Records
---
Amino acid sequence: MHISENLTGLKSTLPPGVTLVAVSKTKPQELIMEAYATGHRDFGENYVQELADKHEQLPKDIHWHFIGHLQSNKVKYIASFVHLVHGVDSLKLLKEIDKQAAKQKRVIPCLLQVYIASEESKFGFDVAEVQELVASGVLQQLPNISVAGLMGMASNSEDKQLVKAEFGKLAALFQQLGQLSVTGMEMKYLSCGMSGDYRLALEAGSNMLRIGSTIFGERQYGAGK
Ligand SMILES: *Cc1c(COP(=O)(O)O)cnc(C)c1O
């Protein structure tokens, strides 16, 4: 794999203001370092243990994004260093991140994961639940987290209209919440778009892409999406 070429080539096509999170899950440190050598610093992982190990062993100026499904009892392993938690899908998890961040005397930026796909197995809040959460006033009571945007995954489908509509739904919510003034929330990042659908995500207004296989090649060992 020509990782540095893949990465720099991809980045040269992105509009300004778009952050590319290079998804390095299952990939060994040597490959991450190839990407790092190009100056890239944002990497995404979705297994807590793997992330904690890589954080320990790799350069400390990497911004580690947690993009997977985070279990409350594992927040403590990444709370000291995680740059952005993308997949927050319950109030319980938000409260636990707040608690662990307080122990570390820091504020952890989080994205609320919104369920936009028509598929069954995806995690996340639905649109109404996000609106309720924001309106409930609970965010003001969690000083050690900040809600910095939204994250979503579209259906894994060839149907472009479907995927476009799903990203559109997420972008509309992002716009709507961006109009509100709520302590503890600032809609900065719209995290959507993966290798197969990032162009559609950019069209919909994404400003944070999570891309793995286009940069690092296909994942070898049963790592799912
Ligand atoms: C693995 C993964 C990606 C990257 O997927 P690719 O298709 O390899 O680009 C993006 N987002 C999440 C949440 C993932 O788990």
---
Amino acid sequence: MSGVSAPPSPRVDIDLAKIEHNARTLVNALAPAGIRVTGITKATLGLPSVATAMASAGVARIGDSRVANLERLRRAGVRSPLMLIRSPTPAECERVVALRAVCVVTEPSVVDALSAAAAQAGVTQDVLLMIELGDLREGVLPHQALELSRRISLLPHVALVGIGTNLACRNGVVPTASQMHQLSNLAALLRTELGIVLPLVSGGNSANLGWALAGGGPRGQGITDLRLGEAILLGTDPVTQSPIPGLHTDAFTLVATVIESLAKPTMPWGERSVDSFGGSPLVSDRGTINQTLLSIGRQDLELEGLVAPVGMRVLGASSDHLVLETPVRLAPGTEIRFSVAYAGLLRAMTSPYVANEISVPALAG
Ligand SMILES: *Cc1c(COP(=O)(O)O)cnc(C)c1O
């Protein structure tokens, strides 16, 4: 903290050592089950230092949902193998081929566009076919997988290197042994029918950790990869919304600054309509409190999952003001630190008004 100038505010403080610890802990916990980790950087917009921390921890590759984020990683010199975990649009296929990233696919016409782009570049594009197993986001239905896989395997410039599935994100369908068996059985069928190796069987995201880390474990179930973002970054299990034992939950801290702190009544006065987001907040008369205003708002944060320091309470927010109740009045310029949940991290990282401040891990040894 010996900087010449004060760090910008608001900002997200990022502790790379904690991210690396979380990634290494998960890599080691999953290795006995034959599962390797794809570290997902999308919540940080493909921040190169986060990818590097994951790579140092031994993840097999880095994945992101956006072509632009993967390009950012390559530009920054990240050398890890990459995976694009959202299907590209046909127009993005040339850029995907240029990245040399494994690419998830679900639509024949997109595979054709990848093949054409790969032919042009004189390379083979690796693809991973996503299978719909009930959460109803991306993927072909299981009974369509063989036909589409056959079609892919006949294309000269595309190689089918795996299949995968994604649960929990759209409808909250919980990943269990049943879907994982279905996925690995499908992989076995494709290997037999098409005579391909299909090394990647990518079982899902952080929501799969309940299954993967359960007693008895998934050994021998044929899943070879999990794509982990939230668990590495925030140390939480999205299914239970609770911390995963042994992981840090404070690798990211949202920091914002006081601009006003006054003793004010808790009851508004005057005729009331709705607030700036159409809501009608319930207020009860608790007398006078210390109401503290920070220069950050809903453009930069999510109230859900935002945790203020002990003794302080979040009362509400508009686009660019966050209202806190604090035990005492605080001087303008005072910094307040919050912990965030996944949606809040995503919002803060995406806001152009929120800076990043990275703490570099101390060199070991
Ligand atoms: C976002 C995403 C992930 C990572 O999800 P987490 O819950 O952050 O682990 C994995 N796979 C796909 C397809 C995704 O879109």
---
Amino acid sequence: MTSLYTLFSVLLVLVVFPSSATGDLINQTCKNSSEGNRNIDQNFCVYALQAFPASRCANLTRLGLISITLVKNNVTDSRCLVKRFLEDKKPDKGTKAAMKDCLELYSDSAYALSDASKDFKAGRFSDANIKVSSVMDGSTTCDQGFDDLGVSSPLKNENGYIFQLSAITLSIIKMLNLSQES
Ligand SMILES: *[C@@H]1O[C@H](CO)[C@@H](O)[C@H](O)[C@H]1NC(C)=O
Ligand SMILES: *[C@@H]1O[C@H](CO)[C@@H](O)[C@H](O)[C@H]1NC(C)=O
Ligand SMILES: *[C@@H]1O[C@H](CO)[C@@H](O)[C@H](O)[C@H]1NC(C)=O
Ligand SMILES: *[C@@H]1O[C@H](CO)[C@@H](O)[C@H](O)[C@H]1NC(C)=O
């Protein structure tokens, strides 16, 4: 009975406090990222990375790949959203043109992220940096198209996610690049 209780306690401790040293890496990384870049919200960063399967014990390299995947998922989803919009709705000429621009930007971004992932895995961090930066720029260019029409971007939320997740990715790339140089 006593030993069962002990076993239970040990299990409970393992479940409640899973290796905090590694679990802390997400927090640590997001803290550094948000301190280095005011566009990054620490809570969003923690929420996004923790939601990814098997991320809690991931090292920084793995977190970098996870963040690239997160941006890619958002880009793919946003692209699909725009495609559906263009098929289902009958937007005015201006909106249609802006949407088509965004569609193209998202397609380019999806390619850029596949390349960035390869660069990242090969340790070509500056190449990965350039590609992820282009994705980040793409999200603002998409919103800008609507701003130019004088309407608020219907893709503001989507672009906001892409922007944030790209910024998080860039900041992880920077951390890895610094540790590689030292
Ligand atoms: C990480 O930060 C979140 C809040 O952002 C907090 O709830 C959580 O306890 C922290 N985890 C660790 C392991 O420090
Ligand atoms: C975060 O920054 C601190 C101080 O600059 C540094 O000691 C730590 O290693 C950094 N963490 C990561 C994950 O890069
Ligand atoms: C990071 O984790 C991956 C597995 O997710 C592993 O292949 C790699 O060797 C680890 N890198 C370091 C520097 O420990
Ligand atoms: C974008 O990424 C965030 C964080 O990973 C997630 O919460 C959100 O559901 C994603 N949005 C889309 C449209 O994929």
---
Amino acid sequence: MSRYWSKPVHDLEPYVPGEQPGGGDWIKLNTNENPFGPSPRALSAIAEAAGDSLRLYPDPGNTLFRQAVAGHCDVEVEQVFAGNGSDEVLAHAFMAFFRQPRPILFPDITYSFYRVYCGLYGIEYRTPELDESLRLRLEDYPADNGGIIFPNPNAPTGLLLPLEAIRELLERNRDSVVVVDEAYIDFGGESAVALVPEFENLLVVQTLSKSRSLAGLRVGFAVGQRPLIEGLERIRDSFNSYPLDRLAEAGAAAAMADREYFAQCRQAVMEQREWLRGRLDALGFEVPPSAANFLFARHPDHSGESLAEALREKAILVRHFSRPERIRDFLRITLGTPEQNRALVSALEAIVK
Ligand SMILES: *Cc1c(COP(=O)(O)O)cnc(C)c1O
């Protein structure tokens, strides 16, 4: 609190990210980072970019990176918008498309940053409930809205909507923007980028933080038809016209181009997911099928809070949400390396038995 704050600052409810412990030997399964390192090609591109040219501003168009994304997604460079993490891209999308007379819609259980952006920009919202099995029901998203946003797969549940369901939603919702937040799509889902040519109101947002192991570089992007991208560019250029620095752009472009490493990494994460899911199931956990790099799990005999605390005592960090009520007994467990996942299973065996 300070009397120097602008008035709206008092009412903000900022996002609280998962813990990033300083020293110590933690097994960190709490923020959905990739357990495998970034592409070696990304690292050498960053090392090469760290030179005299850093005295110059970066390319305001981030052409190198956007070309790499366009190649990966099979779209035009002009249909790609780059940002400093997908959180920034999402924030710009809320500002650009969601300040509407009607409330926007997103699930009651979802990425908690959406509420924060609504608070920041004064956007009204409604939150249709997930069903009992935590699935998104798109029939609860009537066309009369100021916009729609959801992650696919959803966070923190990991549950995936098939592309056909998203197409149906788009077919009956043509008057407001639909943002599909695909932070985890590379772990087994089918991207809605394929629908961009058909729907002028669709914006697909992705990040290099998860499937490309570059959370520390802060790079995300959006794909959409030109008028939506132009809207985002107008916000960006009224805020910070150089979101990607030279190092980030070089590393991100190289990471997008390294198809082989990407394929290996995502495969390894998906294999670990199915292995861990089997082990958790054997320990009595209820684990909805996840298409992400994390599992969402609860045990019938132990509260989420007590499990998270017992794991912390064994130097293992997982994420636990005390709100909303419905998910308070779940743990969100990021897939680690095979070794880390084995350590988690041994710890849980000792705790639940
Ligand atoms: C991790 C995550 C993001 C943010 O990613 P950054 O690119 O690191 O900002 C966005 N949406 C969802 C659903 C996420 O889980």
